[in-house]
Amino acid sequence: MTILPDYLIRRYVQGKRIGHEITFFSVWYELRWGITVCAIMAISLITVVFFYHPSTYNVRSFFRTVTILPESGGRVSEVRVKNGQVVQVGDLLFRIDAASQRAAVEAAQSKVEEIDALIEVADSELAAAAAGVDQAQAAFDLVEEDYLRSKTLLDRGSGAVPQSEVDRLRNQMNAKQGALDAAIANRKYAEQKITVQLPSQRTSAVASLEQAETELAKTEVFAGVNGRVEQFVLQVGDYVSPVLRPAGILVPASFSGQRFVAGFDQLAASVVKPGMPAEITCMAKPFTVIPMVVVGVQDVIPAGQIRQTDNLMDPQDNPRPGTITVALEPLYEGQADGIPPGSSCIANAYTNNHDKLQAEDLSMGRWLFYHVVDTVGVVHAAGLRIRALLMPVQLLVFSGGH
């Protein structure tokens, strides 16, 4: 717009020749102010476009995966699914060799049965102890009657019962009393064995059985969510571990694919706000521009996160400045259908000053500036559409078809 008209006038109107009157110095000298103003205007225009209407190539539709891991390590004894198979919650994926776990369950079950048998035997022991108490009580009562009768006769001064006989009966009564006390203590022991000892042992045995059954259940790995099994090449005899040897990945089927995450430069931190209009175009859906809206802006920059270690952090160890994480969703329902999760996209966000332009006390300078900002957004929108058209050509032709 500056150099070409000047050349045409000089060459065909004024008749000047290239290399003689028309030289690089003469053109620059005559047009230095116009070229400088155009360069400043072009740089200013580009700065306004990219600052108020930021763009980024870092756009992804992230989705989560579930690692297929057993709760305990071991050798695989059975595989029930194949790679790429769709599974539902609760479907059995594979089993680990559970010989030792089954042996532990059988041992714990035997211990419970043994204690149940001891409880039945203890009932018989209690009955025997009760009978022993009755027998000892009867023997004590018989000796006590003889002792009281003989002592009564002796106290009345009767010569039919000597003192030695009374002493013998008293000693015999004391012996029977000791036998009765022993029988009562034996019965009490039998009662406590039934009510305290054996139930406690049975509770412990049942807990051991439940623990053994839990360990046995860990040898079976089930699907925790509905989804599709990926990278699952497990074979019988493979060793899997909850720490080092996962079995595969489960991709949940609940992902809607309607939210995209974009990383804008930090210069856009003061511009990108929730509710801001945006557009994306994705490699998985070429020649298509999808209107979006900013639904969230992360208030921290991931590049600044730290984890507690024994070393002091040096800022120069992280050379990347980091980006502003922005969440985008389609402006209209279903417009992002057909874009596979994880697709790479390009996004533009547009500053909208419509509400500010409606203010009555707006100065002329601000009114003009807001109009310029909103107008140059068309330039960036056109650039996005040009990239959407050229993306297949660039990828399939100029990048060797990769």
TL;DR?
The chain has 402 residues and is of the alpha+beta class. Helices cover 48% and strands 19% of the residues. It starts with a helix and ends with a helix.
Order of strands side by side in the largest beta sheet? 1-10-13-12-11-14
Could you state the CATH homologous superfamily of the largest domain? Efflux pump adaptor protein, beta barrel domain
Write down the overall geometry.
Answer: rod-shaped
Oligomer: single chain
- What's the N-to-C terminus distance? 39 Å
Q: Could you describe the largest sheet, including whether it forms a barrel?
A: 6 strands, antiparallel, barrel
Question: If you had to describe this structure to a student in words, what would you say it looks like?
Answer:
The chain has 402 residues and is α+β, with helices and mostly antiparallel strands. It folds into four domains: 1-45, no CATH class; 53-63 and 255-303 and 320-402, Efflux pump adaptor protein, beta barrel domain (Elongation Factor Tu (Ef-tu), domain 3), CATH 2.40.30; 66-97 and 219-252, OB fold (Dihydrolipoamide Acetyltransferase, E2P); 99-216. The chain contains six helices and 14 strands. Strands 1-10-13-12-11-14 form a six-stranded antiparallel β-barrel. A hairpin with a 2-residue loop joins strand 11 (277-282) and strand 12. Helix 3 (99-155) packs antiparallel against helix 4. The longest helix is centred in the first third of the chain and has 57 residues, at 99-155.
Write the layout of secondary structure elements.
Layout: H1 3-13, H2 24-52, E1 55-60, E2 66-68, E3 74-79, E4 86-87, E5 92-96, H3 99-155, H4 163-217, E6 220-222, E7 227-230, E8 239-240, E9 248-252, E10 260-265, E11 277-282, E12 285-297, E13 323-330, E14 344-349, H5 354-357, H6 364-398
Antiparallel strand pairs: 1-10, 1-14, 2-9, 3-5, 3-8, 4-7, 5-6, 7-9, 10-13, 11-12, 11-14, 12-13
